[in-house]
Amino acid sequence: MSEAVARFVSDGNTVAIEGFTASICFAAAHEIIRQRRQRLTLCRLTPDLVYDQMIAAGVADGMIFSYLGNPGVGSLHCVRRAIEQGVPTPLALEEYSHFGMVGRYIAGASKLPFFPLRSYFGSDIPSVNPRIAFVDSPYGEEQIAVVPPLNPDVAFIHAQRADRHGNTQLWGLLGVQKEVSFASKNVVIVVEEIVDEETIRADPNRTLIPGLIVDAVVEEPFGAHPSYVQGYYDRDGDFYLRWDEISRDRERTDAWLEDWVYGVPDRSAYIIKLGQEKLDKLAPGEKLAPPVNYGRYDQAQDYGSV
Amino acid sequence: MDYSPSELMIVSAARALKGSHVVFVGVGLPNIACNLARHSHSPDLELVYESGVFGARPARLPLSIGDPTLVSGATSACSMADLFMCSLQGGLVDVALLGGAQIDRYGNLNTTVIGDYAKPKVRLPGSGGACEIAINAKSTFMIMRLQRRAFVERLDFVTSPGHLHGGKTRDPHTFPGKGPRLVITDRALFDFDNESREMTLTAVAPGQSVDQIKDDIAWDLRVSVSLHEISPPSDEELHLIRVELDPKGLYR
Fold first, then answer.
1. A183, B81, B90, B184: which one has the fewest Cβ atoms less than 10 Å from its Cβ?
2. Class of residue B23 by CB neighbours under 10 A (exposed 0-12, middle 13-18, buried 19+)
Protein backbone atom coordinates (compact mmCIF):
# COMPACT_ATOMS: atom_id res chain seq x y z
CA MET A 1 0.00 0.00 0.00
CA SER A 2 2.81 2.36 0.89
CA GLU A 3 4.33 1.79 -2.55
CA ALA A 4 0.97 2.26 -4.32
CA VAL A 5 0.33 5.57 -2.57
CA ALA A 6 3.89 6.77 -3.16
CA ARG A 7 3.60 5.93 -6.85
CA PHE A 8 0.06 6.99 -7.70
CA VAL A 9 -0.86 9.87 -5.36
CA SER A 10 0.84 13.25 -5.81
CA ASP A 11 0.10 16.56 -4.10
CA GLY A 12 -2.77 18.36 -5.84
CA ASN A 13 -4.26 15.17 -7.34
CA THR A 14 -7.95 14.35 -7.62
CA VAL A 15 -8.48 11.15 -5.66
CA ALA A 16 -11.52 8.86 -5.38
CA ILE A 17 -11.89 6.30 -2.61
CA GLU A 18 -15.41 5.06 -3.32
CA GLY A 19 -17.66 2.30 -1.92
CA PHE A 20 -21.22 3.05 -0.81
CA THR A 21 -21.08 2.31 2.94
CA ALA A 22 -19.48 -1.02 1.96
CA SER A 23 -15.85 -1.64 0.96
CA ILE A 24 -14.47 1.80 1.76
CA CYS A 25 -10.69 1.61 1.59
CA PHE A 26 -9.65 3.19 4.90
CA ALA A 27 -6.25 1.49 4.49
CA ALA A 28 -5.52 3.72 1.48
CA ALA A 29 -6.83 6.84 3.23
CA HIS A 30 -4.62 6.25 6.27
CA GLU A 31 -1.55 5.66 4.11
CA ILE A 32 -2.23 8.91 2.22
CA ILE A 33 -2.42 10.70 5.59
CA ARG A 34 0.84 9.06 6.76
CA GLN A 35 2.60 10.14 3.58
CA ARG A 36 1.31 13.67 4.27
CA ARG A 37 -0.10 14.43 0.84
CA GLN A 38 -1.47 17.95 0.42
CA ARG A 39 -4.06 19.90 -1.56
CA LEU A 40 -5.90 16.80 -2.75
CA THR A 41 -9.39 17.07 -4.22
CA LEU A 42 -11.42 14.20 -2.80
CA CYS A 43 -14.33 12.70 -4.78
CA ARG A 44 -16.96 10.49 -3.23
CA LEU A 45 -20.75 10.31 -3.12
CA THR A 46 -20.75 10.05 0.66
CA PRO A 47 -17.56 11.46 2.23
CA ASP A 48 -18.21 9.24 5.29
CA LEU A 49 -15.67 8.87 8.09
CA VAL A 50 -12.96 8.18 5.54
CA TYR A 51 -12.88 11.76 4.24
CA ASP A 52 -13.73 13.21 7.65
CA GLN A 53 -10.41 11.73 8.83
CA MET A 54 -8.48 12.85 5.73
CA ILE A 55 -9.85 16.38 5.99
CA ALA A 56 -9.05 16.51 9.72
CA ALA A 57 -5.49 15.50 8.82
CA GLY A 58 -5.24 18.39 6.34
CA VAL A 59 -4.50 16.42 3.16
CA ALA A 60 -7.31 17.98 1.11
CA ASP A 61 -8.50 21.43 0.09
CA GLY A 62 -11.38 20.40 -2.17
CA MET A 63 -14.22 17.94 -2.19
CA ILE A 64 -16.67 16.73 -4.87
CA PHE A 65 -19.61 14.94 -3.23
CA SER A 66 -23.34 14.42 -2.81
CA TYR A 67 -24.11 13.51 0.81
CA LEU A 68 -22.23 14.68 3.89
CA GLY A 69 -23.08 12.53 6.84
CA ASN A 70 -22.04 9.81 9.24
CA PRO A 71 -24.51 7.25 7.83
CA GLY A 72 -27.20 6.39 10.35
CA VAL A 73 -25.43 8.44 13.06
CA GLY A 74 -25.34 12.17 12.26
CA SER A 75 -22.88 14.83 11.12
CA LEU A 76 -19.33 14.69 9.83
CA HIS A 77 -17.85 17.05 12.37
CA CYS A 78 -14.37 17.45 10.84
CA VAL A 79 -15.80 18.28 7.41
CA ARG A 80 -18.18 20.73 9.07
CA ARG A 81 -15.29 22.39 10.94
CA ALA A 82 -13.50 22.85 7.62
CA ILE A 83 -16.60 24.29 5.94
CA GLU A 84 -17.95 26.39 8.81
CA GLN A 85 -14.64 27.58 10.34
CA GLY A 86 -11.90 26.80 7.82
CA VAL A 87 -10.22 24.41 10.30
CA PRO A 88 -7.60 22.99 9.70
CA THR A 89 -7.88 24.47 6.17
CA PRO A 90 -10.77 25.83 4.11
CA LEU A 91 -12.43 23.35 1.79
CA ALA A 92 -13.71 24.16 -1.72
CA LEU A 93 -16.96 22.31 -2.29
CA GLU A 94 -18.39 21.04 -5.53
CA GLU A 95 -21.77 19.60 -4.68
CA TYR A 96 -24.12 17.29 -6.61
CA SER A 97 -26.85 14.78 -5.84
CA HIS A 98 -26.12 11.02 -5.85
CA PHE A 99 -27.44 10.56 -9.37
CA GLY A 100 -25.34 13.53 -10.49
CA MET A 101 -22.18 11.93 -9.08
CA VAL A 102 -23.07 8.56 -10.64
CA GLY A 103 -23.61 10.36 -13.95
CA ARG A 104 -20.28 12.19 -13.70
CA TYR A 105 -18.44 8.88 -13.35
CA ILE A 106 -20.42 7.31 -16.22
CA ALA A 107 -19.57 10.26 -18.49
CA GLY A 108 -15.94 10.03 -17.35
CA ALA A 109 -15.82 6.28 -17.97
CA SER A 110 -17.44 6.46 -21.40
CA LYS A 111 -15.59 9.60 -22.58
CA LEU A 112 -18.77 11.59 -23.14
CA PRO A 113 -18.90 15.39 -22.77
CA PHE A 114 -21.82 15.17 -20.32
CA PHE A 115 -24.42 12.87 -18.78
CA PRO A 116 -28.13 13.76 -18.97
CA LEU A 117 -30.42 13.10 -16.00
CA ARG A 118 -33.84 14.04 -14.66
CA SER A 119 -32.79 15.99 -11.62
CA TYR A 120 -32.04 19.52 -10.36
CA PHE A 121 -35.16 21.25 -11.77
CA GLY A 122 -36.56 23.55 -9.09
CA SER A 123 -33.56 22.92 -6.82
CA ASP A 124 -31.02 25.52 -5.68
CA ILE A 125 -28.13 23.07 -6.22
CA PRO A 126 -27.38 24.37 -9.77
CA SER A 127 -27.28 27.94 -8.40
CA VAL A 128 -24.30 27.04 -6.20
CA ASN A 129 -22.70 24.69 -8.71
CA PRO A 130 -22.39 26.28 -12.17
CA ARG A 131 -21.07 23.01 -13.60
CA ILE A 132 -24.63 21.65 -13.54
CA ALA A 133 -26.38 22.84 -16.72
CA PHE A 134 -29.63 22.38 -18.62
CA VAL A 135 -29.78 21.61 -22.35
CA ASP A 136 -32.61 21.31 -24.88
CA SER A 137 -33.37 17.82 -26.10
CA PRO A 138 -32.74 17.57 -29.86
CA TYR A 139 -35.67 15.12 -30.08
CA GLY A 140 -38.48 17.05 -28.45
CA GLU A 141 -39.54 20.06 -26.47
CA GLU A 142 -38.02 19.13 -23.18
CA GLN A 143 -34.97 20.33 -21.28
CA ILE A 144 -32.70 18.00 -19.41
CA ALA A 145 -30.08 18.54 -16.71
CA VAL A 146 -26.51 17.58 -17.54
CA VAL A 147 -23.36 17.02 -15.48
CA PRO A 148 -19.76 16.99 -16.74
CA PRO A 149 -17.46 13.94 -16.78
CA LEU A 150 -15.32 13.21 -13.74
CA ASN A 151 -11.94 11.57 -14.33
CA PRO A 152 -10.02 11.24 -11.05
CA ASP A 153 -6.23 10.95 -11.23
CA VAL A 154 -6.45 7.84 -9.12
CA ALA A 155 -9.13 5.59 -7.62
CA PHE A 156 -8.65 3.17 -4.74
CA ILE A 157 -11.19 0.36 -5.07
CA HIS A 158 -11.69 -2.07 -2.23
CA ALA A 159 -13.18 -5.46 -3.13
CA GLN A 160 -13.44 -9.06 -1.99
CA ARG A 161 -10.94 -10.60 -4.38
CA ALA A 162 -8.84 -10.18 -7.50
CA ASP A 163 -6.20 -12.16 -9.35
CA ARG A 164 -2.67 -10.84 -9.70
CA HIS A 165 -3.60 -9.16 -13.00
CA GLY A 166 -6.24 -7.08 -11.26
CA ASN A 167 -9.34 -8.88 -12.57
CA THR A 168 -11.59 -7.93 -9.69
CA GLN A 169 -14.72 -9.57 -8.31
CA LEU A 170 -17.07 -7.87 -5.91
CA TRP A 171 -20.51 -8.54 -4.51
CA GLY A 172 -22.94 -6.99 -2.06
CA LEU A 173 -23.53 -3.27 -2.54
CA LEU A 174 -21.81 -2.45 -5.82
CA GLY A 175 -22.01 1.33 -5.40
CA VAL A 176 -20.11 3.04 -8.23
CA GLN A 177 -17.00 0.84 -7.98
CA LYS A 178 -17.13 -0.19 -11.64
CA GLU A 179 -17.92 3.28 -13.02
CA VAL A 180 -15.23 5.08 -11.00
CA SER A 181 -12.64 2.48 -12.03
CA PHE A 182 -13.30 3.01 -15.73
CA ALA A 183 -13.32 6.79 -15.21
CA SER A 184 -10.01 7.08 -13.35
CA LYS A 185 -6.57 7.58 -14.93
CA ASN A 186 -4.98 5.15 -12.48
CA VAL A 187 -6.72 2.35 -10.60
CA VAL A 188 -5.40 0.71 -7.45
CA ILE A 189 -7.34 -2.42 -6.45
CA VAL A 190 -7.21 -3.35 -2.77
CA VAL A 191 -8.60 -6.78 -1.90
CA GLU A 192 -9.26 -9.03 1.03
CA GLU A 193 -7.53 -11.82 -0.87
CA ILE A 194 -5.62 -12.37 -4.07
CA VAL A 195 -6.88 -15.53 -5.78
CA ASP A 196 -5.76 -17.54 -8.84
CA GLU A 197 -6.92 -16.65 -12.28
CA GLU A 198 -8.85 -19.97 -12.24
CA THR A 199 -11.13 -18.74 -9.45
CA ILE A 200 -11.89 -15.58 -11.41
CA ARG A 201 -12.48 -17.46 -14.66
CA ALA A 202 -14.90 -19.84 -12.91
CA ASP A 203 -17.37 -16.96 -12.37
CA PRO A 204 -16.84 -14.25 -15.00
CA ASN A 205 -20.14 -12.42 -14.35
CA ARG A 206 -18.83 -11.46 -10.93
CA THR A 207 -15.79 -9.69 -12.44
CA LEU A 208 -16.82 -6.04 -12.60
CA ILE A 209 -13.37 -4.58 -13.12
CA PRO A 210 -11.08 -6.11 -15.75
CA GLY A 211 -7.34 -6.25 -15.09
CA LEU A 212 -6.90 -4.29 -18.32
CA ILE A 213 -7.64 -0.99 -16.54
CA VAL A 214 -5.87 -1.81 -13.25
CA ASP A 215 -2.47 -0.35 -12.39
CA ALA A 216 -1.77 -2.03 -9.05
CA VAL A 217 -3.21 -4.73 -6.81
CA VAL A 218 -2.74 -4.64 -3.05
CA GLU A 219 -3.70 -7.49 -0.73
CA GLU A 220 -4.88 -5.86 2.48
CA PRO A 221 -7.15 -7.98 4.71
CA PHE A 222 -9.51 -5.86 6.82
CA GLY A 223 -8.43 -2.88 4.71
CA ALA A 224 -11.97 -1.48 4.76
CA HIS A 225 -12.45 -1.44 8.56
CA PRO A 226 -14.46 0.30 10.13
CA SER A 227 -16.64 -0.09 7.02
CA TYR A 228 -17.37 -3.65 5.93
CA VAL A 229 -16.82 -6.15 3.17
CA GLN A 230 -19.85 -8.33 2.39
CA GLY A 231 -19.23 -11.89 3.55
CA TYR A 232 -15.84 -11.02 5.09
CA TYR A 233 -16.63 -8.76 8.05
CA ASP A 234 -19.40 -6.60 9.44
CA ARG A 235 -19.47 -2.83 9.72
CA ASP A 236 -18.02 -1.65 13.02
CA GLY A 237 -21.15 0.21 14.08
CA ASP A 238 -19.66 0.95 17.51
CA PHE A 239 -16.81 2.86 15.89
CA TYR A 240 -19.17 4.88 13.68
CA LEU A 241 -21.04 5.90 16.86
CA ARG A 242 -17.82 6.55 18.78
CA TRP A 243 -16.40 8.71 15.95
CA ASP A 244 -19.37 11.02 16.46
CA GLU A 245 -17.98 11.82 19.94
CA ILE A 246 -14.27 11.82 19.05
CA SER A 247 -14.69 14.04 15.98
CA ARG A 248 -16.72 16.72 17.79
CA ASP A 249 -13.50 17.83 19.44
CA ARG A 250 -10.47 18.82 17.38
CA GLU A 251 -7.90 17.76 19.98
CA ARG A 252 -9.51 14.37 20.47
CA THR A 253 -9.57 13.93 16.70
CA ASP A 254 -5.86 14.78 16.44
CA ALA A 255 -5.09 12.39 19.29
CA TRP A 256 -7.03 9.64 17.51
CA LEU A 257 -5.11 10.26 14.26
CA GLU A 258 -1.85 10.18 16.23
CA ASP A 259 -2.80 6.89 17.84
CA TRP A 260 -4.42 4.99 14.96
CA VAL A 261 -2.87 6.49 11.80
CA TYR A 262 0.52 8.17 12.37
CA GLY A 263 1.23 5.82 15.28
CA VAL A 264 0.99 2.63 13.22
CA PRO A 265 3.28 1.85 10.26
CA ASP A 266 0.68 0.05 8.15
CA ARG A 267 -2.68 -1.74 8.08
CA SER A 268 -1.37 -5.00 9.56
CA ALA A 269 -0.19 -3.08 12.62
CA TYR A 270 -3.61 -1.37 12.79
CA ILE A 271 -5.35 -4.75 12.71
CA ILE A 272 -3.12 -6.15 15.47
CA LYS A 273 -3.88 -3.03 17.51
CA LEU A 274 -7.59 -3.55 16.87
CA GLY A 275 -7.30 -7.02 18.38
CA GLN A 276 -8.65 -10.46 17.66
CA GLU A 277 -11.64 -10.02 19.95
CA LYS A 278 -12.94 -7.16 17.81
CA LEU A 279 -12.35 -9.09 14.59
CA ASP A 280 -14.24 -12.08 16.02
CA LYS A 281 -17.12 -9.79 16.90
CA LEU A 282 -17.28 -8.57 13.30
CA ALA A 283 -17.36 -12.06 11.75
CA PRO A 284 -20.48 -12.20 9.57
CA GLY A 285 -21.26 -15.94 9.70
CA GLU A 286 -21.94 -17.93 6.56
CA LYS A 287 -24.75 -17.68 4.01
CA LEU A 288 -23.51 -19.28 0.79
CA ALA A 289 -25.01 -18.86 -2.66
CA PRO A 290 -25.44 -22.15 -4.52
CA PRO A 291 -23.12 -22.41 -7.55
CA VAL A 292 -24.47 -21.75 -11.06
CA ASN A 293 -23.73 -23.74 -14.18
CA TYR A 294 -21.90 -21.79 -16.89
CA GLY A 295 -21.63 -24.95 -19.07
CA ARG A 296 -18.49 -26.41 -20.62
CA TYR A 297 -19.26 -25.91 -24.34
CA ASP A 298 -16.22 -27.92 -25.36
CA GLN A 299 -17.87 -30.22 -27.93
CA ALA A 300 -17.32 -29.08 -31.49
CA GLN A 301 -20.60 -28.59 -33.32
CA ASP A 302 -21.15 -29.74 -36.88
CA TYR A 303 -22.11 -26.56 -38.72
CA GLY A 304 -22.12 -28.31 -42.11
CA SER A 305 -20.54 -26.31 -44.89
CA VAL A 306 -20.82 -22.59 -44.33
CA MET B 1 -50.74 1.38 25.98
CA ASP B 2 -48.60 4.55 26.25
CA TYR B 3 -46.65 5.52 23.17
CA SER B 4 -44.03 8.09 22.19
CA PRO B 5 -44.40 10.83 19.53
CA SER B 6 -41.87 8.93 17.36
CA GLU B 7 -43.96 5.77 17.59
CA LEU B 8 -47.03 7.71 16.49
CA MET B 9 -45.06 9.04 13.53
CA ILE B 10 -43.82 5.55 12.56
CA VAL B 11 -47.32 4.09 12.81
CA SER B 12 -48.87 6.96 10.80
CA ALA B 13 -46.30 6.49 8.03
CA ALA B 14 -46.79 2.72 7.97
CA ARG B 15 -50.58 3.15 7.71
CA ALA B 16 -50.17 5.67 4.89
CA LEU B 17 -48.22 3.10 2.85
CA LYS B 18 -51.27 0.85 2.55
CA GLY B 19 -52.00 0.26 -1.12
CA SER B 20 -48.48 1.17 -2.29
CA HIS B 21 -46.32 -1.46 -3.93
CA VAL B 22 -42.81 -0.13 -4.54
CA VAL B 23 -41.41 2.09 -1.79
CA PHE B 24 -38.08 3.92 -1.76
CA VAL B 25 -36.80 3.74 1.80
CA GLY B 26 -34.56 6.05 3.80
CA VAL B 27 -32.77 5.12 6.99
CA GLY B 28 -34.12 5.65 10.49
CA LEU B 29 -37.83 6.29 11.00
CA PRO B 30 -38.78 5.63 7.33
CA ASN B 31 -37.01 2.30 7.50
CA ILE B 32 -38.96 1.20 10.57
CA ALA B 33 -42.21 2.54 9.12
CA CYS B 34 -41.76 0.57 5.88
CA ASN B 35 -40.87 -2.60 7.74
CA LEU B 36 -43.88 -2.11 10.02
CA ALA B 37 -46.12 -1.81 6.95
CA ARG B 38 -44.61 -4.99 5.54
CA HIS B 39 -45.09 -6.88 8.81
CA SER B 40 -48.71 -5.75 9.15
CA HIS B 41 -51.00 -4.81 6.25
CA SER B 42 -48.66 -5.00 3.23
CA PRO B 43 -46.59 -8.20 3.19
CA ASP B 44 -45.89 -7.71 -0.52
CA LEU B 45 -44.45 -4.22 -0.15
CA GLU B 46 -41.29 -4.00 -2.23
CA LEU B 47 -38.62 -2.05 -0.33
CA VAL B 48 -36.06 -0.29 -2.53
CA TYR B 49 -32.95 1.24 -0.98
CA GLU B 50 -30.85 3.97 -2.57
CA SER B 51 -27.79 1.77 -1.98
CA GLY B 52 -29.02 -0.56 -4.74
CA VAL B 53 -31.10 -3.15 -2.89
CA PHE B 54 -34.55 -4.50 -3.82
CA GLY B 55 -36.78 -6.72 -1.75
CA ALA B 56 -34.63 -6.50 1.40
CA ARG B 57 -35.48 -8.86 4.26
CA PRO B 58 -33.22 -7.38 6.97
CA ALA B 59 -32.47 -9.85 9.76
CA ARG B 60 -31.62 -6.98 12.13
CA LEU B 61 -32.43 -3.27 12.35
CA PRO B 62 -30.06 -1.68 9.81
CA LEU B 63 -28.01 1.23 11.19
CA SER B 64 -27.72 2.73 7.70
CA ILE B 65 -29.17 2.23 4.22
CA GLY B 66 -25.88 0.54 3.33
CA ASP B 67 -26.06 -2.13 6.03
CA PRO B 68 -24.94 -5.62 4.87
CA THR B 69 -28.08 -7.15 6.41
CA LEU B 70 -30.05 -5.47 3.60
CA VAL B 71 -28.12 -7.45 0.99
CA SER B 72 -28.26 -10.94 2.52
CA GLY B 73 -31.56 -12.49 1.51
CA ALA B 74 -32.66 -9.58 -0.74
CA THR B 75 -34.21 -10.26 -4.14
CA SER B 76 -31.64 -8.09 -5.93
CA ALA B 77 -28.52 -6.00 -5.30
CA CYS B 78 -27.50 -3.76 -8.18
CA SER B 79 -25.17 -0.88 -8.98
CA MET B 80 -26.26 2.66 -8.14
CA ALA B 81 -26.21 3.47 -11.86
CA ASP B 82 -28.83 0.78 -12.50
CA LEU B 83 -30.84 1.89 -9.50
CA PHE B 84 -31.01 5.59 -10.41
CA MET B 85 -31.26 5.17 -14.19
CA CYS B 86 -33.55 2.18 -14.63
CA SER B 87 -35.58 1.98 -11.43
CA LEU B 88 -36.00 5.53 -10.17
CA GLN B 89 -35.82 7.46 -13.45
CA GLY B 90 -37.51 4.50 -15.16
CA GLY B 91 -40.58 5.32 -13.09
CA LEU B 92 -40.88 2.20 -10.93
CA VAL B 93 -41.09 3.92 -7.54
CA ASP B 94 -44.64 4.49 -6.21
CA VAL B 95 -43.76 6.29 -3.00
CA ALA B 96 -40.55 7.68 -1.56
CA LEU B 97 -40.16 8.78 2.04
CA LEU B 98 -38.09 11.91 2.56
CA GLY B 99 -37.06 13.95 5.58
CA GLY B 100 -35.58 17.42 5.92
CA ALA B 101 -34.43 20.18 8.23
CA GLN B 102 -36.84 22.71 6.70
CA ILE B 103 -40.07 22.41 4.72
CA ASP B 104 -42.30 25.13 3.27
CA ARG B 105 -46.03 25.25 2.54
CA TYR B 106 -45.55 23.61 -0.88
CA GLY B 107 -43.50 20.70 0.43
CA ASN B 108 -40.16 21.93 -0.90
CA LEU B 109 -37.35 20.58 1.28
CA ASN B 110 -34.04 21.85 2.59
CA THR B 111 -31.37 19.35 3.63
CA THR B 112 -28.35 21.45 2.58
CA VAL B 113 -27.63 24.48 4.81
CA ILE B 114 -29.09 26.72 7.48
CA GLY B 115 -27.94 30.25 6.67
CA ASP B 116 -26.01 31.26 3.60
CA TYR B 117 -24.56 28.50 1.39
CA ALA B 118 -21.12 30.09 1.20
CA LYS B 119 -20.99 30.87 4.93
CA PRO B 120 -23.44 28.44 6.55
CA LYS B 121 -24.59 28.63 10.15
CA VAL B 122 -25.15 24.89 10.00
CA ARG B 123 -23.94 22.67 7.22
CA LEU B 124 -26.45 19.83 6.67
CA PRO B 125 -25.86 16.60 4.69
CA GLY B 126 -27.02 17.84 1.28
CA SER B 127 -29.12 16.02 -1.31
CA GLY B 128 -27.92 12.46 -1.41
CA GLY B 129 -30.51 11.02 -3.78
CA ALA B 130 -33.32 13.24 -2.47
CA CYS B 131 -33.35 15.79 -5.32
CA GLU B 132 -33.90 13.21 -8.07
CA ILE B 133 -36.19 11.13 -5.84
CA ALA B 134 -38.41 14.21 -5.31
CA ILE B 135 -38.54 14.67 -9.08
CA ASN B 136 -38.98 11.06 -10.25
CA ALA B 137 -40.88 9.08 -7.60
CA LYS B 138 -44.61 8.92 -8.42
CA SER B 139 -45.31 10.53 -5.04
CA THR B 140 -43.44 11.46 -1.89
CA PHE B 141 -44.26 11.39 1.82
CA MET B 142 -42.34 13.73 4.10
CA ILE B 143 -41.54 12.50 7.60
CA MET B 144 -40.29 15.06 10.11
CA ARG B 145 -40.94 16.39 13.58
CA LEU B 146 -43.29 19.37 13.78
CA GLN B 147 -41.19 22.31 15.01
CA ARG B 148 -41.33 26.04 14.32
CA ARG B 149 -37.75 26.11 13.04
CA ALA B 150 -38.60 23.37 10.50
CA PHE B 151 -41.95 24.57 9.08
CA VAL B 152 -40.79 27.87 7.64
CA GLU B 153 -42.14 30.62 5.40
CA ARG B 154 -39.03 30.53 3.19
CA LEU B 155 -36.37 27.82 2.93
CA ASP B 156 -32.72 28.85 3.33
CA PHE B 157 -31.98 26.51 0.40
CA VAL B 158 -34.20 24.38 -1.84
CA THR B 159 -32.54 20.97 -2.03
CA SER B 160 -35.47 18.90 -3.26
CA PRO B 161 -38.41 20.41 -5.15
CA GLY B 162 -41.94 19.79 -3.88
CA HIS B 163 -44.85 21.67 -5.43
CA LEU B 164 -42.45 24.62 -6.06
CA HIS B 165 -44.60 27.79 -5.93
CA GLY B 166 -47.89 25.91 -5.78
CA GLY B 167 -50.70 25.63 -8.34
CA LYS B 168 -49.46 24.23 -11.63
CA THR B 169 -45.83 25.38 -11.27
CA ARG B 170 -44.65 21.76 -11.08
CA ASP B 171 -44.59 21.00 -14.81
CA PRO B 172 -45.25 17.30 -15.58
CA HIS B 173 -42.83 17.58 -18.49
CA THR B 174 -39.78 18.08 -16.31
CA PHE B 175 -41.20 16.41 -13.20
CA PRO B 176 -42.40 12.87 -14.00
CA GLY B 177 -43.53 12.37 -10.37
CA LYS B 178 -46.55 14.10 -8.88
CA GLY B 179 -44.65 15.43 -5.86
CA PRO B 180 -45.47 15.57 -2.15
CA ARG B 181 -48.69 13.83 -1.10
CA LEU B 182 -48.44 13.69 2.69
CA VAL B 183 -46.48 15.25 5.52
CA ILE B 184 -46.28 12.95 8.53
CA THR B 185 -45.19 14.45 11.84
CA ASP B 186 -45.20 13.45 15.50
CA ARG B 187 -48.22 15.71 16.23
CA ALA B 188 -50.22 16.10 13.05
CA LEU B 189 -50.77 14.91 9.47
CA PHE B 190 -51.06 17.08 6.37
CA ASP B 191 -51.92 16.60 2.73
CA PHE B 192 -51.77 19.03 -0.20
CA ASP B 193 -54.78 20.91 -1.56
CA ASN B 194 -55.66 19.88 -5.11
CA GLU B 195 -55.77 23.39 -6.57
CA SER B 196 -53.19 25.44 -4.70
CA ARG B 197 -50.94 22.46 -3.81
CA GLU B 198 -50.59 24.02 -0.37
CA MET B 199 -50.09 21.97 2.79
CA THR B 200 -53.37 21.35 4.61
CA LEU B 201 -53.86 20.06 8.15
CA THR B 202 -55.94 16.86 8.01
CA ALA B 203 -55.41 15.19 11.38
CA VAL B 204 -54.06 15.97 14.83
CA ALA B 205 -52.59 13.66 17.45
CA PRO B 206 -54.70 12.91 20.53
CA GLY B 207 -54.41 15.81 22.97
CA GLN B 208 -53.28 18.35 20.35
CA SER B 209 -55.36 21.36 19.35
CA VAL B 210 -55.34 23.08 15.97
CA ASP B 211 -53.99 26.23 17.63
CA GLN B 212 -51.06 24.31 19.11
CA ILE B 213 -50.21 23.02 15.63
CA LYS B 214 -50.62 26.48 14.07
CA ASP B 215 -48.25 27.93 16.68
CA ASP B 216 -45.40 25.89 15.24
CA ILE B 217 -46.01 26.72 11.60
CA ALA B 218 -44.66 29.94 10.15
CA TRP B 219 -47.40 30.54 7.59
CA ASP B 220 -51.16 30.84 7.90
CA LEU B 221 -52.06 27.15 7.82
CA ARG B 222 -55.01 25.75 5.85
CA VAL B 223 -57.19 23.34 7.82
CA SER B 224 -59.18 20.58 6.13
CA VAL B 225 -62.97 20.57 6.53
CA SER B 226 -62.69 16.87 7.36
CA LEU B 227 -60.14 17.35 10.16
CA HIS B 228 -59.97 14.33 12.47
CA GLU B 229 -57.94 12.85 15.31
CA ILE B 230 -55.21 10.30 14.57
CA SER B 231 -56.17 6.96 16.09
CA PRO B 232 -53.45 6.00 18.56
CA PRO B 233 -51.05 3.12 17.77
CA SER B 234 -52.65 -0.26 18.44
CA ASP B 235 -51.09 -2.76 20.84
CA GLU B 236 -50.19 -4.91 17.87
CA GLU B 237 -48.41 -2.05 16.07
CA LEU B 238 -46.50 -1.14 19.22
CA HIS B 239 -45.57 -4.75 19.83
CA LEU B 240 -44.14 -5.05 16.30
CA ILE B 241 -42.07 -1.86 16.72
CA ARG B 242 -40.78 -2.67 20.20
CA VAL B 243 -40.20 -6.39 19.92
CA GLU B 244 -39.55 -7.14 16.25
CA LEU B 245 -38.25 -4.00 14.56
CA ASP B 246 -36.42 -1.85 17.10
CA PRO B 247 -35.82 -3.95 20.22
CA LYS B 248 -33.02 -1.62 21.37
CA GLY B 249 -35.27 1.43 21.12
CA LEU B 250 -32.89 3.44 18.91
CA TYR B 251 -35.68 5.28 17.11
CA ARG B 252 -38.23 5.68 19.89
1. B90
2. buried
Rounded distance between C-alpha atoms, residue A298 and residue B113, angstroms: 62
CA A59 vs CA A13, A31, A41, A136, A232: distances in Å: 11, 11, 9, 40, 30
Q: Is the pLDDT of residue A74 over 90?
A: no
Q: How far is CA A267 from the centre of its chain?
A: 17
- Can you give the CATH number for the domain in which A7 is found? 3.40.1080.10
Residue of A nearest to B61 (CA): A72
> Which residues on chain B are in Cβ contact (under 8 Å) with A176?
79-81
* Cα–Cα distance, A47 to A71 (Å, whole number): 10
Does pLDDT of B224 surpass 70? yes
**H/E stretch holding B25:** strand B22-25
A116 by DSSP, 3-state: which? strand
For residues A74-99, give the mean pLDDT.
95
pLDDT tens for residues B42-67?
A: 999 999 999 999 988 888 888 788 99
**Residue A192 CB partners (closer than 8 Å, separation 6+):** A159, A160, A161, A219, A220, A221, A222, A223, A229, A232
Average pLDDT over residues A160-177: 98
pLDDT given at position A306: 62
Residue A6: which domain range?
2-96+151-281
Contact B30, B11 (CB under 8 A): no
What's residue B56's pLDDT? 87
Inter-CA distances, B83 with A60, B22, B35, B76, B195, Å: 30, 13, 20, 11, 33
Respond yes or no: is residue B229 known to be catalytic: no
User: Are B77 and A98 in contact (CB < 8 Å)?
Assistant: no
Would you mind telling me the total number of residues written for chain A in this entry? 306
A300's CB contacts (< 8 A; 6+ apart) are none
The answer to whether residue A305 sits within a structural domain is no
State how far the Cα of A150 lies from the Cα of A2, in Å rounded to an integer: 26
Are A98 and B129 an interchain contact pair (Cβ–Cβ within 8 Å)?
yes
Instruction: Report the complex ipTM.
Output: 0.96
In a domain, A105, yes or no: no
User: Per the domain annotation, does A102 fall within a domain?
Assistant: no
Would the pLDDT of A265 be above 80?
A: yes
Indicate the residue of A66, A72, A178 with minimum beta-carbon distance to B64.
Answer: A72
Is B5-245 a domain of CATH 3.40.1080.10? yes
What total of structural domains would you count in chain A?
1
Beta strands A14-17 and A40-43 are: parallel
DSSP code string of A20-57: SSBS--HHHHHHHHHTT--SEEEE-SS-HHHHHHHHHT
pLDDT digits (tens, 9 = 90+) for A189-243: 999 999 999 999 999 999 999 999 999 999 999 999 999 999 999 999 999 999 9
A247 in contact with chain B, both atoms CB, cutoff 8 A: no
